[in-house]
Amino acid sequence: MYKNNEENDEKDDSEEVVKEQQNQQIIDTGIVSTPNAKHLIHCLTIIGQIEGHYILPPQNKTTKYEHIIPALVAIEQDRDIEGLLIILNTVGGDVEAGLAIAELIAGMDKPTVSIVVGGGHSIGVPLAVSAKKSFIVPSATMTVHPVRMTGLVLGVPQTLSYFERMQDRITGFVTRNSGISAEKFRELMMKKDELVMDVGSVVDGENAVQIGLIDELGGLSEAISALYELIEQRQETVETHNESEVGLKQ
After folding, report:
1. Is 122 annotated in the active site?
2. Is residue 7 part of a domain?
3. Which residues, including other chains, have CB under 8 Å from residue 129's CB and lie 6 or more apart?
């Protein structure tokens, strides 16, 4: 009887430790793993402004790319983690930092699913489409506009050429990782009668799916179900490959 009580106390203590570690992980990085689930998935939040080469003011809610990049490397290498769920609610931010994160997500072998809640604006668009499957909630919006730069800008042909090449990189990435054509994406980007202070377009959830920018309209449950499906498909592929290798050796 005493032994059972001791075992229960140890179990409660270990559960408390796990909860504390998860809470601290959320506070420190906005990242959490879910061990008590059908599949072990990792939840990565990209919120506020993407902070890149320059430190933003302390009152800004930011996602730091120096935190996200090593986290993605760790997730890809961790044998226990079966998939990655990316939750996006971002106003955009540093273009090169955002594109670097998007390229890393797109290059992952593990199943990845993204869901846009609130907004996936500016460089948030490539981040949203970087996953193997993308979702958007009906009330969310995505702003598509040309590359912008703050601070002193030299009005010379070389600057305009740099902007154009950067924009081509973003357009190429988005069209490679979604169902939207380059022509349609540029049309949204250069629209003149929608934004007050800029050219571009605001695309709502339903429209984003219709034009092929996002794969499906849905919420958290649909995104997790899709991630589980991708995980199970990957497991079946690995098992089939292993069985064929065993057959060849025999």
Report:
1. yes
2. no
3. 102, 114, 173, 174, 177, 178, 213, 214
Q: Residue 142 domain-assigned?
A: yes
> Distance between CA atoms of 50 and 233, rounded to whole angstroms?
32
User: Could you give the CA distance from residue 40 to residue 243 in angstroms, rounded to a whole number?
Assistant: 24
The verdict on whether 145 is a catalytic residue reads yes
**Active-site residue, from 114, 121, 134, 145:** 145
Q: Which amino acid is at 195?
A: L
Domain assignment present for residue 202? The answer is yes
Of the residues 122, 134, 178, 201, which is catalytic? 122
> Containing domain of residue 151, as a range?
37-249
CATH number at residue 118: 3.90.226.10
pLDDT tens for the chain, 250 residues long, are: 555 555 555 656 667 776 777 667 665 655 666 667 788 899 999 999 999 888 888 888 899 989 999 999 999 999 989 999 999 999 999 999 999 999 999 999 999 999 999 999 999 999 999 999 999 999 999 999 888 766 555 566 766 677 788 899 999 999 999 999 999 999 999 998 888 677 899 999 999 999 999 999 999 999 999 999 999 999 998 888 777 766 666 6
Can you tell me whether residue 7 is helix, strand or coil?
helix
